Give the backbone structure.
Amino acid sequence: MSRSQPIRAARGMRDILPEQVALWRGVEMAGEAAARSYGYQEIEVPIIEPVALIERVGGDTDVVRKEIYRIQSHGDASGEREGHLALRPEATAGVVRAYFQGGLNQLSQPVRLTTSGPMFRHDRPQAGRYRQFYQFDLEVIGDPSPAYDAEVIEVSRQWLSSLGLAGVSLVLNSIGDGRCRPPYLQRLKEYYRPLKTRLHPDCQRRLEENPLRLLDCKEEQCQPFKAAAPRITDHLCQPCAEAFAEVRSLLDGAAIEYRLDAHLVRGLDYYTRTVFEFEHAALGGAQNALGGGGRYDGLAAALGYPDTPAVGFAGGIDRVVLASPLSEPVKPAQVWVLPAEPGLEAEAARVGRLCRAEIPAVVDFSRRSLSAKMRAAGRAGSRWVAIMAADEAQRQAVQLRDMRSGDQREVPWDQLAVVMAGSLSS
Ligand code: HAM
């Protein structure tokens, strides 16, 4: 790359610019509020995890085969192997690891946890699909009751509806467990094998390696075969069927609407029984899932820990922001401190500090003219400007100008914060 070429963000990575940050934070805070009101406790887990943690989660999924960001790390004297780390593609595995490693399995069960932050998947970027994206995550670990499946769905829905999102629908399915899924997958393979040459090449591979994902195929040529494929919900074992019926009856009881879809399978391999997604009508095509989750009773054992039932959800914050009807205006600093001549930097910084006792303040240290500074403050939406000239600075006073009314008067430094706060509250 030539040195004159400006450096841009890596493909699939985005900046969240100041004008979007307020909305972004609002979406995150609504998630935290929903989780808190149901007694979920916050946890933070690392962005970097051992590759093994991610590989055991994913089995043969795309997330593991193609999308892991492996880190070229150095080995070290403690015996850590070179390059055995990766950026997390999701939070669930890390939270389950932390639950055991931090001894949360010794507490009264289940443990309700919530976290949020950046995730990384090396997928083809497009609108609504990024290589660094953000999730709001809920996990309930340590109890098999379907009532927790229904609760996780309820909290997730609470989050989305508190944001005023319209056009969101909940899609529900059960994909069985270690007892009923293997014989179902056998049937599915038997159904698809004679059709193999008519399937999309990706589905030809899935047929042998991960047949459940055949149900997830979006390719036109596979749709007629998918429609007639055996349905997992017709092949659930008794305990899975009963658990699914209970989840549905709890959702009905809570007046939570959903659509059953026997083709709903998830992109990660660890699910058992309940799976669900929230779709948004206005987000296009394959990127229409605002969030999803389900029960994952086998994950703890796959990570080398005792068998422990769990259920969870993750919402895509980027997509929720895209779909959100809210647009929060950026809150500008309410006063700009404008030194009218050079040499007043220390005094201006001090006046800025005094203003901040009550309201946000910006100090304009630039060398542009006073009128240019006034225009900049006006464009930024500032309510006041505090103009500082050398003679007034000697008296420890400024000219405070109300940008709305145009009124201007001298105010001593030590009264500025109180004067402005007083007129904001009146
Ligand atoms: P997931 O379906 O892979 O589930 O991701 C959840 C949500 O994250 C998606 O519905 C989507 O909104 C968002 N998302 C995923 N990939 C991207 C991307 N490349 N760009 C933008 N947004 C994206 C999980 O991650 C599970 N850990 C959920 C879970 C928690 N299951 C149990 N507990």
In short: The chain has a mean pLDDT of 92. The chain has two domains: 18-180+236-323, 335-425.
